[in-house]
Specification:
GO terms for molecular function: monooxygenase activity; oxidoreductase activity, acting on paired donors, with incorporation or reduction of molecular oxygen. By secondary structure, this protein is an alpha/beta fold. The chain has helices at 20-37, 56-64, 84-99, 126-134, 153-166, 189-206; strands at residues 8-11, 41-44, 71-74, 120-123, 138-141, 176-177. The chain has a domain at 119-174.
């Protein structure tokens, strides 16, 4: 087995309905901690009508002002609820805020060169994996999958990865992101701090990963 090259984490940003500001602040502090520990990426996701992040792009905009190296991502934004043009502008704005680079051109503004190659498509079926590959995107595997050729989760996810890479111009080098460890939502902030610290100090290096500098 090859060495683990990249290590990131995802948080849903839980908060108390009576004091949502404190929960969002904790989420930003966790992302800052991830950068200090050398994680390569931090991800947030939608939790509509629940006590979790409802606006990942806004949270990432805030996180971009507190970090300088760690990659920030969303997993995932359901496009059915979004205006694609508005979302593209929001993501480009966050990318500019985090990268500090803007170029004028006759297109969606602000323009952030290279953002297209860093888009990830979340899929849980063979057809979604195939579409991501055919369109040259990165592929974000899902914990919710469609059983088409097997009922074994590992086999299903592997079939999606193979389908994606079989249709991607980069073949076996096409980028795939997998979630390997899932933690209970109800942990306290101190628990997440301890777990991230232990992963960065012990588990990651044991798998060949080295903290980013």
């Amino acid at each position: 087995m090859g060495s683990l090259r990249n290590l990131g984490f995802l948080t849903i940003g839980l908060f108390d309905g009576a004091d949502p500001g404190a929960g969002h602040e904790t989420t930003l502090e966790v992302i800052e901690l991830g950068e200090r520990l050398g994680f390569d990426s931090a991800w947030v996701r939608h939790r509509h009508l629940q006590f979790g992040i409802s606006s990942p792009v806004a949270v990432l905009a805030a996180a971009s002002q507190r970090t300088s190296r760690i990659h920030l991502g969303t997993a995932v934004i359901p496009l059915g609820w979004e205006n694609p043009l508005r979302l593209a502008e929001d993501l480009a704005t966050v990318d500019v805020l985090s990268e500090g680079f803007e170029v004028f051109s006759d297109r969606v503004q602000p323009h952030s060169p290279g953002l297209g190659s860093r888009l990830w498509y979340g899929g849980g079926s063979l057809s979604s994996a195939r579409w991501a590959g055919e369109n040259g995107m990165n592929f974000l595997t899902s914990s919710v999958v469609k059983a088409e050729q097997s009922e074994d989760f590992a086999e299903i996810q592997l079939s999606h990865i193979r389908e994606f890479r079989a249709h991607h111009p980069d073949g076996d080098k096409a980028r795939v992101s997998q979630g390997h460890v899932a933690l209970p939502f109800a942990f306290e902030p101190a628990d997440y701090t301890q777990i991230l610290t232990d992963i960065a100090a012990h588990l990651g290096p044991a798998l060949g990963w080295q903290p980013a500098q």
